[in-house]
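Hi R.,

Here's the chain you asked about this morning:
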Amino acid sequence: MNAADLIDTAFSAYNGARLREAARLLNKKMLPENGLVGWTLTGALTPAGLGKSCLVPLMKGGFIDWVVSTGANLYHDLHFGLKMNLHAGSPFLSDVELRKDSVVRIYDVLFDYSVLLDTDAFVREVIQSPEFQRSMGSDEFHHLLGKFVHERAKTLGVQDDSILATAYECGIPVFTSSPGDSSIGMNIAAMALRDSKLVLDPNEDVNRTAAIVYDAKRDHRHSSVVILGGGSPKNFILQTEPQIQEVMGLDENGHDYFVQFTDARPDTGGLSGATPSEAVSWGKVSPDTLPDCVVCYSDSTIVLPLLTAYTLARSEPRPLKKLYHQRDRLLNRLKSDYLSTLN
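And here is the predicted structure, written out as tokens:
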């Protein structure tokens, strides 16, 4: 029995059933009719190899149209594009001894401290290039960085290992909602002390993410979100609708479909536990499709491989939207309609 058949036939109750509902929602309602699907990445997914094994095939198959990620996931993604070694280990080792041996631990993933230093050196080398010496959105920054990773990966004989290299190749915009909160941001900050002119502009990101959603909805296509974990990327992808409705005063009704995989509880008041129903009250999710929205309380490292296997088995690859290459058109459409409301 393959993974897709297993999910359809044996995942019949509790969070197993929620996973089945999520997989069916993605493949039967989110993806058809050229629907827009944005994904968020939180938690240490790329160090666990889930970028290479799951996200890259989904991106190349046209199942991921745009991404909001933590900076940490994108930083650790670079290790794979640069052909560095990460190792399976144990969460029960002595961290004091690991520190003495210059070994870094992410739960049960281990790697030499030199991996960080060499990745940092690559980032600093790249962002000294002339094309980086200006203010830009994080999507443009990641596209340019992805170009360098793509070129380095080819030189090293690495293929389809990096999210950023794949996003560059496929024209998929990749945003980060808190660019200073990662080693990539730390290296950008350090280079600013050496007179680098690179600045990541959050205003660009807020407007360009809203423009992606606005364009889809104005063309009468569904806009959906798949949220792996929670955190800042969750709010950043969902706030596109309040940006359109509440701030810009444009008529809209919220994202059409919402799937989240999380271990957070809603009763503590944290965003990662916030339900689709709560999101309706903010205008983030359409009340018309609320019954279709799914929250599965499980670990992303469990559900993502299953969801990927299900999608590759049940859906034909879609043409790539290459939204990055349409970014100016999308922003101009949003800007024009917004400014028209001010007259």
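One quick note: The domain at 3-340 is CATH 3.40.910.10 (Deoxyhypusine Synthase).

Cheers,
M.
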